[in-house]
Amino acid sequence: MKKTALIMAGGRGERFWPKSRKSLPKQFLSLTDDGRTMIQLTVERIRPLMDLEDIYISTNRAYRGLVMEQLPGIPPENILCEPVGRNTAPCIGLGAVHMAKKYEDALMMVLPSDHLIKYNQMFLNALKDGCGIAQKGKNLVTIGITPDYPETGYGYIKFRPQEADGNAYAVDRFVEKPDVETAKEYLETEEYLWNSGMFIWKVSTILDNMKSMLPDMYDGLFKIAEAIGTDKQEMVLEKVFPELESVSIDYGIMEKAQNIYILPGVFGWDDVGSWLAVERIQKSNERGNVVTGNIITINSKNNIIQGGKKLIAAVGLENLIIVDTEDATLICDKGSTPDIKMVLENLKICNREEYL
Amino acid sequence: MKKTALIMAGGRGERFWPKSRKSLPKQFLSLTDDGRTMIQLTVERIRPLMDLEDIYISTNRAYRGLVMEQLPGIPPENILCEPVGRNTAPCIGLGAVHMAKKYEDALMMVLPSDHLIKYNQMFLNALKDGCGIAQKGKNLVTIGITPDYPETGYGYIKFRPQEADGNAYAVDRFVEKPDVETAKEYLETEEYLWNSGMFIWKVSTILDNMKSMLPDMYDGLFKIAEAIGTDKQEMVLEKVFPELESVSIDYGIMEKAQNIYILPGVFGWDDVGSWLAVERIQKSNERGNVVTGNIITINSKNNIIQGGKKLIAAVGLENLIIVDTEDATLICDKGSTPDIKMVLENLKICNREEYL
């Protein structure tokens, strides 16, 4: 069966301010040593499984230019621009109706555009396994991540170890972000995986599920689908999409659906969730500093410093994140990364749009 | 007797990097809220005692333009440019021979250009007291600062409480920077004052002392004096001055001389010795942050942040000094200010002159 992918690239990436901005979010940034952006790495990663013309990018209209610039091989009609953000269910639905129009049915992989994966071949093997299971009946497949530690920032998925199909297990249930005690219990049972937001299913399967669980959304998507390829395509999208319910695919479908399987993924996954991720993905020097740019460090250790041409001198510093851009500099204690959003709130309140 | 002043403005102010540079040292910067530079404040402070034409500025040739720009009222011939830095004894000697040439004899106040004084009237009273004592015989007068705490970064001067002349005391001896235990003992005796580097004497008195204690220097200065006002002035200065012994006035004269008096100064003196001084001289907000420029602070306290137009966001920071300039940013723990010189050493070694 034809393999396709929908790469979701509509996010704002506020946690990477000041490098990520409204006009240049995280997925369009390079956060690794090799210079390629997150979305470029995402596309290259799955190229062994499919052609560029089978890859769809879902994004905000404002980022169409960035997608075309960074991914020149993707056909322009595969760049699906949402008039407004409506969470993942409408996003995935829009991708599905486009694929249904082109291929009638196909295997659809849903992938975030801003995660990193270290062991590509193992990741491809997991996708292939997932395709095998998704082709059977009306299975919904998700890829879970074997947890390393009791993270409280991710959702978890409980599986049934005794109900295996090849490398996959039947899903028992999706659970919200736990507190740390609950997360520890999850790890001890060895029956929980992190929810990575990666899915595989047939286009027909996900649309069937939408029809039964999100019927209004399905009707809306059907109207949009009818207009694809006509001169009314943009107009209908513009009118109908904003009216779709804003709901996640997890809440709208996965938490209620049957026939869900999960593949435990062990391929060096990293969701690059904050500046702290930089020290996991870039090399540090002998004092634990991870530096990029024109930097002098004196008696400083375990800092993340992202500069450019401007000289940054760090003297006697420990456990700081320093990010310098043309018009703004962030200096943040490693323990305070969640508070970066307070900077953005402050900027919004003061109408300082130029920094957002 | 005619009152004159020599303001010493040849210093480099490396401790205020990156704002102070070779091309713009500390005395030419504004570090207070009111916008005037250190040297401008120094001149304005003594204006009630003398005219601008009686004020001399000793500086490095590279700073002549800055002096003329910041102090347009000072006669150009009063700007004494040293071909090379030779410590304070030759600097003061050069000032003295210029004054001797113009006034024959006069009262000469020697003042640093980069200190701050809070209570100006009390400072002027001290200078007037000092002039009274310096006029008698061959007295050398220095102004000491009543110590607040056992500072180890200053020299101390021991006086004899029983030998008073008005508000002044006879000096027992000059002592080098002590260790902290010794400094504590000094404070307990109440017979030691901080050496502020401010002096008052007659031009004839200091030249007489030079003649007996630094005869080679005196001879050199005499040659320079003979050429003042002739077309050979610059040539002789250029030839003779670099050959003068590089020695401080403290070591060369004050530690050996007789008839030294000291006036205890209580006028809110601050030598503005490092970035830490900024929190003494500028207002802090309710969380103890002292900020200038385009700054957002989130959960941050007791920081000194000197920015400009560029946005600086400080998140979860404590006890840091952040100084942003056009081409360089310093981020330094408050406990590490002495290590700022290591940044400069690093830049020198790497021939990165543009940042010095």
What can be said about this structure in brief?
Chain A is α/β, with parallel strands linked by helices and 356 residues long. In chain A, 31% of the residues lie in helices and 26% in strands.
Overall 3D geometry of chain A?
A: globular
Can you give the helix content of chain A as a percent range? 25-40%
**Largest inter-chain contact set:** A-B, 34 and 34 residues
What is the oligomeric state here? homodimer
Q: Which class of secondary structure composition applies to the elements of chain A?
A: alpha/beta
Q: What are the secondary-structure elements of chain A, in order, as H or E? A: EHEHEHEEHEEEHEHHHHEEHEEEEEEH
Mean pLDDT of chain A: 95
Radius of gyration of chain A: 21 Å
Percentage of residues in DSSP E strands of chain A: 25-35%
Question: Could you name the key traits of this structure?
Answer:
homodimer; about 350 residues; alpha/beta; 5-stranded mixed barrel; 4-stranded mixed sheet; 11 helices; about 30% helix; globular
Protein model, in words:
The structure is a homodimer of 356-residue chains. In chain A, 31% of the residues lie in helices and 26% in strands. The longest helix of chain A has 16 residues, at 88-103. In chain A, α3 (88-103) packs across α6 (203-213), α3 crosses α7 (215-227) and α6 (203-213) crosses α7. Chain A is built from 11 helices and 17 strands. By secondary structure, the first copy, chain A, is an alpha/beta fold. In chain A, a hairpin with a 2-residue loop joins β7 (156-165) and β8 (168-175). Chain A starts with a strand and ends in a 7-residue tail after the last helix. In chain A, the strands form 4 sheets. Chain A has a 5-stranded mixed beta barrel. In chain A, strands 12-14-16-17 form a 4-stranded mixed sheet, with no helix packed on it. Chain A has helices at residues 38-46, 64-70, 88-103, 120-135, 180-189, 203-213, 215-227, 233-240, 249-254, 278-281, 340-349, and strands at 3-9, 55-60, 79-82, 107-112, 116-117, 140-145, 156-165, 168-175, 192-202, 260-265, 269-270, 290-292, 295-298, 304-306, 311-315, 320-324, 328-333. Chains A and B meet through β15, β16, β17 and α11 of A and β15, β16, β17 and α11 of B.
